[in-house]
Each structure stands twice: as C-alpha cells, then as structure tokens.
C-alpha cells in the first residue's frame, strides 16, 4: 500500500510493454473515496532545448509527427532521456543530433505535460554560446526533420498561434521571451 497525497495505491501491474513505454494499471482509492483502476503510461523523461544564437534567434525544428498528422509542426530540439543518461546529457545529445550544434546548457525548469496520463517530465534547457556546423545525426523517424533559426519574436508568435504544437516547447519559448525582456 502506498499513500500518494489524497490517493491510496494498493496494487500495480504492467498491462503492456513496448520498446519506448509501458502501460500500467493501479488499484487505487480516489480522493473522493471510490475504489478504481487507474491506467497510466510509464515513459522516460524528455528534454527540450531553446538554442539561442548570438543574434538573438532561436532554433526550431519542423517535423511531421505520425500521431498528430499535422504537416509543418514546429517544436524545439529535444527527445527522450536514455537509460542511465542525465537530462543535461540528453539535451546536449539532442541539440547535436537535430541541429548539429553544441553549446552551454542551463536547466531552467521541468514540467509534467500530461500529469493525468504519465509521471514523465520534460526538462527545459536554454543553450547559449552555440557552435553550429556539425552534421546532424537523425534517425529514420526524423528523416524529414529540418532545423532552422528564427527571430525570438517569430518563435513567440508561433507559440501563441499553435505553429509550435509541442506544449513544453511553447512554454520554453515564452519563458525565454519573458526573461529576455
């Protein structure tokens, strides 16, 4: 038995396992006192990187993701934190793989983008002192990924109009804009 705030978990079981995440079902008592099964996804943490150029631009990536099926969706460079990898190491790896860049990383926060579905967090980094020019190292699912720099004002507009369709990316862009003002 495990107390989790006003919730009580009595049992947990793995329902399904895939290469990137698992589905679990917990037997719980809800804050209102009802006994229930609570299904959730166990997945690795993620990272997003706001890579800033000396000219004040920010790198975004455009990629067609299979599930939203929305052409031209923007987000910030990022991806999953590997087993045994720190969020900072994952951020550096993703920045290099997707943009071909290295830089100085600063963790500015962590968010839970889907707290009712998963405990997976997205760690938000700002990268400065960029050195761009290395070859990107995209995997097969990223073959259509294109990275490019835009003025911060354009990234803010994209966060507000939904062009940046990734919520942690939008949050990080707005955070960078607010702290840069």
TrEMBL record:
Name used for this protein in its record: ADP-ribose pyrophosphatase
Domain of life, per lineage: Bacteria
Natural source organism: Paractinoplanes ferrugineus
Keyword annotations from UniProtKB, A to Z: Hydrolase
Gene Ontology BP term (one): ribose phosphate metabolic process
Entries under InterPro entries matching the protein: Nudix_hydrolase (IPR020476), NUDIX_hydrolase-like_dom_sf (IPR015797), NUDIX_hydrolase_CS (IPR020084), NUDIX_hydrolase_dom (IPR000086)
Cofactor section: Mg(2+)
UniProt-recorded Gene Ontology molecular function terms: pyrophosphatase activity
Keyword Hydrolase applies: yes
PROSITE patterns per record: NUDIX, NUDIX_BOX
Family, similarity comment: Belongs to the Nudix hydrolase family.
Domain Nudix hydrolase: 40-172
